[in-house]
Specification:
InterPro entries: MoaB/Mog-like_dom_sf (IPR036425), MoaB/Mog_dom (IPR001453), MoCF_biosynth_CS (IPR008284), MoeA-like (IPR038987), MoeA_C_domain_IV (IPR005111), MoeA_C_domain_IV_sf (IPR036688), MoeA_linker/N (IPR005110), MoeA_linker/N_sf (IPR036135). This protein is an alpha/beta fold and about 425 residues long. It has 8 helices and 28 strands. A hairpin with a 3-residue loop joins strand 21 and strand 22. The longest helix has 19 residues. Magnesium ion (MG) binds next to loops.
Length: about 425
């Protein structure tokens, strides 16, 4: 048993061989301190950055009442005078285009030809769409029930009123947010500095793609998946290459990484083999929170803090995730344990990835007492119901079935085997925005 501080600061007991995933996620978030430093960046460079301050709208959007359709603007009070089944005949006294307002007055029996986005002329509150009128010379006529008073007019400030909160600090800026900020006339925003994440692979058997493969060697894929997953999070990723299965080399790599990085990710060397040194290094260079999860894939996962000075409290500290070496285990632990921590540390107030109820199309083996994340291919049926089937081998080394998948089947800690037709929660890989 190991002793850990839980969320309330109390001391809790966990069996390090079987730390449940939810407990691990909670401990990791407890260890995270969000970055304080911020910088100003041009709007064009702000995508996927985390907003440092609340943004309050400096202006009304839209800035003026305007037409929502091409047609004719008039005083909607006239509709009542037409009576039931009646018609209106109005003289066209000018034109208003987006960017070219009509500045004149509009007589009660007149209207203004207006295009979408053009400011509503003074005294006009209604737009009759051009398809609903008959035009003869200088006049238009239309049935009074063709339009209700106030129709087809967008109100000043209806999207955002001046002084109202537009975006909250902690927002990870997406395309719509960038557009929203642009619509407020904002050219620069304060964002948290980017998180610095150093990562390396461990293993004497590893070669980089491009190098010849010696007998018994394999290509290092984890550094490539980690690099790609980190790029999606828009962190400042520092690739430290491959480190040999050798305590001195590993210590140098970890201490060097802690000099500059906020977080260090390693892969391999965290299980109990004779060449697995990461956990021992973590124990001597820093603090260990846990090193084994009740999770599949991903049972060996060391988490804690390393210090550049080589002992707790000496020099600079970085969080360390010692991820399992098996390529799918590396990915699954990244998504389930590391990603939420990186987002929290980057200052992002992110929504949890939603779980979607589905029906499992094939039997699935599952042992109670650990959370499993199986690779699946899901599709939405004609009846709107999601259906899912595992993509094949669930070996923690089989990247091909991860590549073929579009979701995880999330099998809860206490769940057991599933039959075809049973309900199961899925977590889709791709978000739209
Ligand atoms: P380990 O935890 O170091 O014993 O690694 C577990 C398995 O994952 C072994 O079969 C390793 O060869 C493999 N492995 C470790 N690191 C990598 C990597 N960076 N790329 C591909 N496979 C790896
Ligand atoms: Mg190894």
């Amino acid at each position: 048993m190991t002793t850990l501080n839980n969320l309330n600061g109390c001391v809790a007991q966990f069996d390090p061989q079987a730390l449940p995933v939810s407990a691990a996620q909670a401990i990791v978030l407890q260890w995270v301190t969000p970055l304080a430093a911020s910088e100003r960046v041009p709007l064009r460079d702000a995508l996927d950055r985390v907003l440092a301050d609340d943004v309050v709208s400096p202006i009304d959007v839209p800035a003026h009442d305007n037409a929502a359709m091409d047609g004719y603007a008039f005083d909607g009070a006239r509709l009542a005078s037409a009576g039931a089944g009646g018609a209106l005949r109005l003289t066209v006294s000018g034109k208003a285009f987006a960017g070219h307002p009509f500045d004149g007055g509009v007589a009660p029996d007149a209207c203004v030809r207006i295009m979408t986005g053009a400011p509503m002329p003074a005294g006009c509150d209604t737009v009759v769409p051009q398809e609903r009128v008959e035009r003869a010379g200088d006049a238009v006529s239309f049935a009074a029930d063709a339009v209700a008073r106030g129709a087809n007019r967008r109100h000043k400030g209806e999207d955002l009123a001046a002084g109202r909160p537009a975006l909250a600090a902690g927002r990870m800026l997406r395309a719509a947010d960038i557009g929203l900020l642009a619509s407020l006339g904002i050219v620069e925003v304060a964002v948290r500095r980017r998180l610095r994440v150093a990562y390396f692979s461990t293993g004497d058997e590893l070669r980089s793609p491009g190098e010849p493969l010696a007998p018994g060697a394999i290509y290092d894929s984890n550094r490539y998946t980690l690099g790609a997953m980190l790029r999606r999070l828009n962190v400042d990723a520092i690739d430290l290459g491959i480190v040999r299965d050798e305590p001195v080399a590993l210590e140098a790599a970890l201490r060097g990484a802690a000099e500059t990085a906020d977080v260090v990710l390693t892969s391999g060397g965290v299980s109990v083999g004779e060449a697995d040194f990461t956990r021992a290094q973590l124990q001597s260079l820093g603090d260990v929170a846990f090193w084994s999860l009740a999770m599949r894939p991903g049972r060996p996962l060391a988490f804690g803090r390393v210090w550049s000075g080589g002992r707790p409290g000496a020099g600079r500290a970085a969080l360390l995730f010692g991820l399992p070496g098996n390529p799918v285990a590396t990915m699954v632990t990244f998504y389930q344990i590391v990603r939420p921590a990186l987002l929290a540390m980057a200052g992002a107030k992110a929504q949890p990835v939603p779980l979607i109820p589905a029906v499992c199309d094939a039997p699935v083996r599952k042992r109670a007492g650990r959370t499993e994340f199986q690779r699946g291919l899901a599709a939405r049926g004609d009846n709107g119901q999601w259906r899912v089937a595992p993509t094949g081998s669930q070996s923690s080394g089989a990247l091909s079935t991860m590549s073929a998948a579009n979701c995880f089947l999330v099998l809860a800690h206490d769940a057991t085997d599933l039959d075809a037709g049973d309900p199961v929660d899925i977590m889709l890989f791709d978000g739209l925005v």
